[in-house]
Amino acid sequence: MTVPLEGKPHYILTATCDSRMGTVARVSGFLASHTCYITDMQQFDDVITGRFFTRISFYGNPGSTPELEALREQFEAVAKLEVMEWAIVEADKKPRVMIMVSKFDHCLVDLLYRNRTGELKMEISCVVSNHPDLRSLVEAQGIPYVHIPVTAETKAVQEDKLMALVEETQSELVVLARYMQVLSDDLCRRLRGQAINIHHSFLPGFKGAKPYHQAHARGVKLTGATAHYVTADLDEGPIIEQVVQRVDHTYTPEKLAAAGRDSECRALATAVRLHVERRVFLNDSKTVIFG
Amino acid sequence: MTVPLEGKPHYILTATCDSRMGTVARVSGFLASHTCYITDMQQFDDVITGRFFTRISFYGNPGSTPELEALREQFEAVAKLEVMEWAIVEADKKPRVMIMVSKFDHCLVDLLYRNRTGELKMEISCVVSNHPDLRSLVEAQGIPYVHIPVTAETKAVQEDKLMALVEETQSELVVLARYMQVLSDDLCRRLRGQAINIHHSFLPGFKGAKPYHQAHARGVKLTGATAHYVTADLDEGPIIEQVVQRVDHTYTPEKLAAAGRDSECRALATAVRLHVERRVFLNDSKTVIFG
Amino acid sequence: MTVPLEGKPHYILTATCDSRMGTVARVSGFLASHTCYITDMQQFDDVITGRFFTRISFYGNPGSTPELEALREQFEAVAKLEVMEWAIVEADKKPRVMIMVSKFDHCLVDLLYRNRTGELKMEISCVVSNHPDLRSLVEAQGIPYVHIPVTAETKAVQEDKLMALVEETQSELVVLARYMQVLSDDLCRRLRGQAINIHHSFLPGFKGAKPYHQAHARGVKLTGATAHYVTADLDEGPIIEQVVQRVDHTYTPEKLAAAGRDSECRALATAVRLHVERRVFLNDSKTVIFG
Amino acid sequence: MTVPLEGKPHYILTATCDSRMGTVARVSGFLASHTCYITDMQQFDDVITGRFFTRISFYGNPGSTPELEALREQFEAVAKLEVMEWAIVEADKKPRVMIMVSKFDHCLVDLLYRNRTGELKMEISCVVSNHPDLRSLVEAQGIPYVHIPVTAETKAVQEDKLMALVEETQSELVVLARYMQVLSDDLCRRLRGQAINIHHSFLPGFKGAKPYHQAHARGVKLTGATAHYVTADLDEGPIIEQVVQRVDHTYTPEKLAAAGRDSECRALATAVRLHVERRVFLNDSKTVIFG
């Protein structure tokens, strides 16, 4: 038997709260009492931090305008009881995403392509860069390109401009697609859980600059890339995705870097996909991911 | 906050039924109403077959002897309503498992070792073989070894003996760890969903005999192994796990076979672990696996 | 100690002949007697087919114009003795490559990008398609786009046109980047060892059409793609590269196909790179690859 | 055509020297002039360190007793000219290997098993442990077990005993299969390039103790193990093999450790196999590996 879902509005509920008895029953009971149909539900109870996480994909009922607002209002009562952080969103509404780059374009090209094919379901609000180089590439796809040059002197001012742009463009997520500027602690805090960076190493392997030279010097047999949320502590943000590939003694630093581009693209694209599909939760310095 | 679980009985509930509204709420509501605490819940709704699957790990309450029987009795009402196939078992009770082998011993050695380390949580009821060769290896570990030779003439009789042994030893699962005899259709039916085989190929790649010679002849660049439930249709049973590894032109059939032993051990061990942890569900000719 | 290679011409010698005593010594002796410096030498002796394969990267001496022609002439004596098929080419000369597509563009976009970054060292002579759809994408990069529509009636004529185009554009390699037309036996023969196809399955797994639907129906846990040389026997050409990725019961055929795009891009790009770097040798129905 | 190798003695020549013109020709010319037949030859020229490495598998001629000694004597002239470090060994002669353990037995069990199947071609001279626990496991396989307890006070004396045992048993290789004692700098130096350690982390990721707890705290999405040569600088020895596997937020440190056992077994077994097959060369702080 298949429950007919055709034409019904599709929602995602995400919630996190302290672990306690009956939360699953109360949340699923709420949805059942509103004749909502759950198609996918995942939950995780972290016995170490004592936190509970859940992501529920469900279908509501057509016609009851505006259903989403009503659902949110009524869920508030459950959420209050459980002291939850939560959200209910339309599953098909694409989050607005700002991409930041410098001069390397492989991650940008990859993200634009995956967005075009529909594999990534996001609306790119704009591409921001501290260099003018990639303007034509971006504008050719009908996406606004904003050049915000940064020097040591102008950094504070330019970061304010950046943050204003995030708000003005209603961007929910900022993707640092090989953006080669360190963000200030203050900006990192303001973008907590909202900005994803790609680190061109298999963290915690090689932090800092030139990881491919470090990997070569160490003679590793596997190398990779790490996508993580941005935090003030550089290279230490909560990890979302890691990708690895086999290398050998014939790899020069240049060849390691060339090979690394693939890992970077794949790790960043996966992390962005997981985030825009509301599958990633912050759990202290780590992430919970419902794949 | 952490809910104190110390000393509480730990159960696994598995259930499958037709997809319908409210099942998750009814099941989780049942557990909440019995002050049972859910630590892990996974569910899958197959929109194509219209079947619903769930696996719930939960903690009951100490002291209420015999709680398990009471829970089962009371859950029957919910299950009837939903026309469910279901089970509630003690999470720490190890299923009894019969292993069958011929002469190759790599999968057997691997399973025995992983069982000894506690990675596989099962009680090996006995090892059955159509050859006497591996007796000392098995008995040295204090496990009964039963030699059931098979010829074309004795096959039917010996299979009856085998089935009797499964029942007598209360074995819930039969693992064919490179058992080189084809089971009769009848035996396959009687062991449906209860017998796991390791196929030494990356199915559906190379069916039948000598898959490593086939792989060599075809010049594949990756090879692997497939663990699946036994069905009358040889090599077509529902797949539980597949493992793959890279090979190249220097691999002779012998070297492919040697390399393949690793894949076979890993695929079979994973499949057995998933099964004894009650993570695998039959879904027509396929499986649903809650990893 | 490092031998100074700066400014010296860099060559690749590839050769195959029947296995016999002393071939390595004769070839390397020839190079040493011409004060050529070997930086990389790989060889394989297939004990089953009795064929010998070698690929040597070496540096010649500057100034002796035209050294390449002289080397070739003088090597002919060695080659005759050994009844070799062989070639000596300039390592930095990019082979001319024709790409063929239909409507799917993911492999095309990936190849164009990797060529632009220099990861693939080839000169794209033109993109040929039986559809007009991808013209603007290709021409935007300054690459000629040739539309050759094909119907059952016009197939023979259009294939002649195609073959004429291969010769006219001096294309050494034809890459079928999801070209959805079956080539005639005759064309396959004419392009033997010169045309690479991407099959959207992990061959020999699912031949023919709709492999993602087949994979779904079979409930596989790993899926992948295969890049191979084109032969008259569809889906049976010598395999160059295979890529695999893990999937699970939640993958619909659509999601399998989406996931498969990544495997296809990676398998095809790797195969093309290996070929243009002269690392692939035909060995009957298989390949020898010096990675 | 296949060169008949049946009955001919099979040798491995390994050599390393400074990079210079003509080395390949001189070495292969030497073999050809002695009518030796090369079946596999690999070489690597490190343009950064200016070192040349080669491994040649070849067949000599039967009957000419003692051919090996004669070959070695005559090759000495070539080797002197090139200032080579070199060796010629019989391919089928199994190196004698000493295994050292403490209490964890998974790597030991795995090595013993792979040795028994012939996948690892070595002769285990003895197993040494600072604990008595694994005696019966080892002796049951007919292998001597030597208990050498170590305290801070007795360390120097016991290491002398150990080194004496290495010599007395003519062990060419020492495998630290989760031996939980730090070797003295002096012993590390004496065993340079002759002792392999398994580090239970994906180095350089998590050095020092409790890497699985570190991995858990950092929330990594991939974990692994590293097999490397022992050096005075702990965790910094030349890497031979690395193995990695995917993990997620549900992995506790215990589960990470359990999962890690597989990686450790596979990385160590591969490293030992590569070493005993004479495929690994030291290249400063790195290795060159002919796979």
From TrEMBL, chains A, B, C, D:
GO function term, MF aspect, one: formyltetrahydrofolate deformylase activity
Limits of the ACT domain: 12-86
An example Gene Ontology biological process: one-carbon metabolic process
Annotated EC: 3.5.1.10
Enzyme class: hydrolase
Functional pathway: Purine metabolism; IMP biosynthesis via de novo pathway; formate from 10-formyl-5,6,7,8-tetrahydrofolate: step 1/1
UniProt keyword annotation of Transferase present: no
Record keywords: Hydrolase, One-carbon metabolism, Purine biosynthesis
Top-rank taxon, per record: Bacteria
List of catalytic residues: 235
InterPro entries cross-referenced by the UniProt entry: ACT-like_dom_sf (IPR045865), ACT_dom (IPR002912), Formyl-FH4-Hydrolase_C (IPR041729), Formyl_transf_N (IPR002376), Formyl_transf_N_sf (IPR036477), PurU (IPR004810), PurU_ACT (IPR044074)
Catalytic activity: (6R)-10-formyltetrahydrofolate + H2O = (6S)-5,6,7,8-tetrahydrofolate + formate + H(+)
Record keyword Heme present: no
Function: Catalyzes the hydrolysis of 10-formyltetrahydrofolate (formyl-FH4) to formate and tetrahydrofolate (FH4).
PANTHER family: FORMYLTETRAHYDROFOLATE DEFORMYLASE, FORMYLTETRAHYDROFOLATE DEFORMYLASE 2, MITOCHONDRIAL
Family statement drawn from the similarity comment of this UniProt entry: Belongs to the PurU family.
Protein's recorded name: Formyltetrahydrofolate deformylase
Gene: purU
